[in-house]
């Protein structure tokens, strides 16, 4: 292979890599914009849910249709015991839920999500409390 062919081949490869990099940058910009919009929507939804939760009386009657979600059950438990700190297993025992490891791990995940959404705080790792 002569030097001229090698230089032409390198130039072609550089152009291809540059085009691919530009394409990826554009894709990143589109995804970043979509992520920003989605995060803003999530923040709005969390705020709305928090406000509704604050407006709902703590001793409210349970939903007669029986359509309470696990998250609602957890939030209701914290609303009824606002000053207490719970571990996931203790919460299961309080609510009469199964205490097998798989069930408790699912609740840990839910507690983490409620913490990230601002409904709960985690004063110590693995311990959860209603945000005041």
Features:
3-stranded antiparallel β-sheet, mainly alpha, single chain, 4 helices
Explain what this protein looks like in three dimensions.
It contains 4 helices and 3 strands. The protein is mainly α and 132 residues long. A hairpin with a 2-residue loop joins strand 2 and strand 3. It is elongated and about 80 Å long. The model is unreliable at 61-67 (pLDDT under 50).
Described by the principal axes of the CA atoms, the overall outline is elongated
What class would the helix/strand composition place it in? mainly alpha
State the low-pLDDT regions, or none: 61-67
Number of helices, counting only DSSP H or I runs of 4 residues or more: 4
Compute the average pLDDT.
Answer: 86
User: Helical percent range?
Assistant: 55-70%
Major beta sheet, strand line-up: 1-3-2
Biggest β-sheet strands, sense, barrel:
3 strands, antiparallel
Short note summarizing the structure:
The chain is mostly helical. The chain has helices at residues 3-55, 70-80, 88-95, 101-116, and strands spanning 85-86, 120-124, 127-130.
Task: Describe the secondary structure blueprint for this structure.
Elements: H1 3-55, H2 70-80, E1 85-86, H3 88-95, H4 101-116, E2 120-124, E3 127-130
């Amino acid at each position: 292979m002569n030097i001229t062919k090698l230089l032409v081949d390198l130039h072609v490869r550089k152009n291809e890599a540059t085009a691919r990099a530009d394409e990826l940058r554009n894709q990143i910009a589109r995804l970043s914009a979509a992520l920003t919009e989605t995060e803003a929507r999530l923040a709005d939804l969390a705020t709305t849910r928090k406000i509704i939760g604050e407006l709902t009386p703590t001793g409210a009657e349970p939903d007669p249709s029986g359509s309470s979600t696990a998250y609602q059950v957890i939030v209701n438990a914290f609303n009824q015991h606002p000053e207490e700190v719970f571990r996931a297993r203790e919460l299961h025992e309080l609510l009469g839920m199964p205490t097998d490891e798989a069930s408790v791990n699912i609740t840990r995940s839910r507690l983490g999500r409620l913490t990230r959404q601002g409904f709960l705080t985690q004063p110590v790792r693995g311990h959860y409390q209603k945000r005041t």
